[in-house]
């Protein structure tokens, strides 16, 4: 084994390696380097899951793991003369991640901007004045998320409503935990029946998948509305009885949105519309539209800064007059401060997961798994299992692996895969970007294990939604 490991370090040449190292190496899936990559990935996911107890940021183990996996791939590629293919693969995986990262960066920046303009604090005061109980807030937030997800994307919807859940009851950890879990389930369920509701549905729609009984077009996804609704309602009804009774305490101080808050809300919706236009009409990546929308906020931030009003100090002091105090006691709006406060641990965690899974896919583990499932198990069991797998592997790489196989399935089966991957991520907190984002947003109240307690109920809802689809949409199979 040593003679395999050290030549790459000493020679540094793929050509020399190809000549010096035995060319009859087994496939990487049957080689020690492939086994090691798989073991390291499983260990990293376990460490990320135990963040609540280890207090080790979840991004650290998976980012290191991504590097280890691709280092093993790079070494094996040099030994077998396939370095070009490995480089192309890692660049493709990196491109997919960068698109997702930049999209999330824009959403998080808008969320931070709305928070700085006291939008969520004002909403909390408004909700408190309505006299809604914790259970009323629980249902309101879930329903709003389910309705918004098909239009705003499940991640954006979860982050928007999740921020409101945290703001309404900042000291009630139990409500925040259940409220965020409810929002995650509602976001994933609501995003499953719309082409714009989730990245996975967008991928399938844009692939223009040819099925055995027609094309999976835009309107086909709406056949999943009732199964998705059931997927949301069953856990919500079960959690209803665990939600604390009583009402949130009203704000002691008066709350009001700062100047420009309403216009930033409008700009955020314009940003989403721009992203949809770029993807749906121009057939360009949605992230280009999102970044264009970030420019809307940048220009508006410049306007706020240039028109910021000041009050002079009470004493006629030249130094104080040269550095006037803002009228609200704070500095003018700065968009780059909002970018700096984005949850970078979340973005790095998604990087680690995306690159690690991409590496395992390059090695061939996902292809082997898909081949066994679709060719030996059958389409229905395979699609159900794919949904369960998405709770660990994350829905985007899972759906990419299915599309890479491109099994010859009916529209009903492709919709079953869509429903499974979209809602299966709700089984674990790390199974969807919405869950990962809200774990970071909840100040430690919504965690992997607080979510895990409700996994049996979520699994029951998953099975019920699948059975509903099989019965209700039988004509599509």
From TrEMBL:
GO terms for biological process: sodium ion transport. Residues 48-422 form the Citrate transporter-like domain. Keywords: Antiport, Ion transport, Membrane, Signal, Sodium, Sodium transport, Transmembrane, Transmembrane helix, Transport. One of its GO terms (cellular component) is membrane. It is a multi-pass membrane protein. Pfam families: CitMHS. It comes from the Bacteria. The chain crosses the membrane at residues 34-50, 62-82, 94-111, 132-152, 158-176, 183-206, 218-243, 264-281, 287-304, 348-368, 380-403, 415-440, 452-472. Residues 1-18 form the signal peptide. The keyword rRNA processing does not apply. It is found in: Membrane. Its main location: membrane. InterPro entries: Cit_transptr-like_dom (IPR004680), NhaD-like (IPR045016). One of its GO terms (molecular function) is antiporter activity. The keyword Ion transport applies. Belongs to the NhaD Na(+)/H(+) (TC 2.A.62) antiporter family. This is Sodium:proton antiporter.
């Amino acid at each position: 084994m040593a003679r395999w490991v050290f030549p790459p370090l000493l020679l540094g040449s793929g050509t020399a390696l190809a000549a010096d190292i035995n060319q009859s190496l087994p496939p990487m899936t049957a080689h020690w380097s492939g086994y090691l990559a798989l073991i390291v990935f499983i260990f990293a996911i376990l460490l990320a899951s135990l963040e609540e107890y280890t207090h080790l940021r979840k991004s650290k183990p998976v980012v290191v793991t991504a590097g280890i996996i691709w280092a093993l791939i790079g070494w094996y590629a040099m030994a077998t003369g396939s370095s070009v293919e490995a480089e192309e693969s890692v660049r493709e995986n990196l491109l997919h991640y960068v698109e997702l990262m930049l999209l999330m960066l824009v959403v998080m920046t808008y969320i931070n901007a709305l928070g700085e303009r006291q939008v969520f604090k004002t909403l909390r005061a408004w909700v408190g004045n309505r006299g809604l109980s914790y259970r009323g807030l629980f249902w309101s937030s879930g329903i709003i998320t389910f309705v918004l997800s098909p239009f705003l994307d499940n991640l954006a919807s979860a982050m928007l409503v999740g921020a409101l859940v945290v703001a309404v009851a900042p000291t009630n950890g139990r409500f925040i935990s259940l409220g965020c879990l409810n929002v995650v389930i509602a976001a994933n369920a609501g995003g499953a029946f719309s082409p714009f509701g989730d990245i996975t549905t967008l991928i399938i729609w844009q692939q223009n998948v040819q099925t055995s009984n027609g094309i999976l077009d835009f309107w086909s996804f709406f056949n999943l509305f009732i199964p998705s609704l059931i997927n949301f309602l069953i856990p919500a009804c079960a959690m209803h009885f665990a939600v604390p009774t009583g009402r949130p305490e009203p704000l002691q101080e008066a709350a009001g949105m700062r100047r420009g808050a309403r216009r930033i809300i409008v700009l955020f919706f314009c940003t989403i519309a721009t992203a949809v236009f770029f993807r749906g009409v121009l057939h360009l990546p949605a992230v280009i539209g999102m970044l264009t929308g970030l420019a809307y906020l940048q220009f508006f931030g410049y306007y706020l800064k240039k028109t910021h009003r000041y009050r002079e100090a009470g004493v006629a002091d030249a130094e104080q007059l040269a550095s006037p105090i803002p009228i609200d006691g704070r500095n003018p709006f700065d968009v780059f401060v909002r970018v700096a406060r984005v949850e970078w641990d979340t973005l790095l965690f998604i990087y680690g997961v995306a690159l690690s899974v991409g590496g395992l896919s390059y090695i061939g583990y996902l292809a082997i798994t898909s081949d066994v499932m679709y060719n030996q198990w059958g389409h229905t069991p395979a699609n159900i299992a794919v949904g369960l797998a998405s709770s660990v592997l994350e829905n985007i790489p899972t759906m990419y692996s299915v599309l890479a196989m491109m099994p010859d399935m009916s529209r009903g089966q492709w919709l079953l895969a869509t429903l499974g991957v979209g809602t299966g991520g709700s089984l674990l907190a790390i199974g969807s970007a919405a869950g990962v984002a809200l774990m970071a947003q909840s100040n430690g109240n919504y965690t992997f294990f607080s979510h895990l307690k409700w996994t049996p109920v979520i699994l029951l809802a998953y099975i019920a939604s699948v059975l509903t689809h099989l019965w209700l949409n039988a004509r599509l199979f």
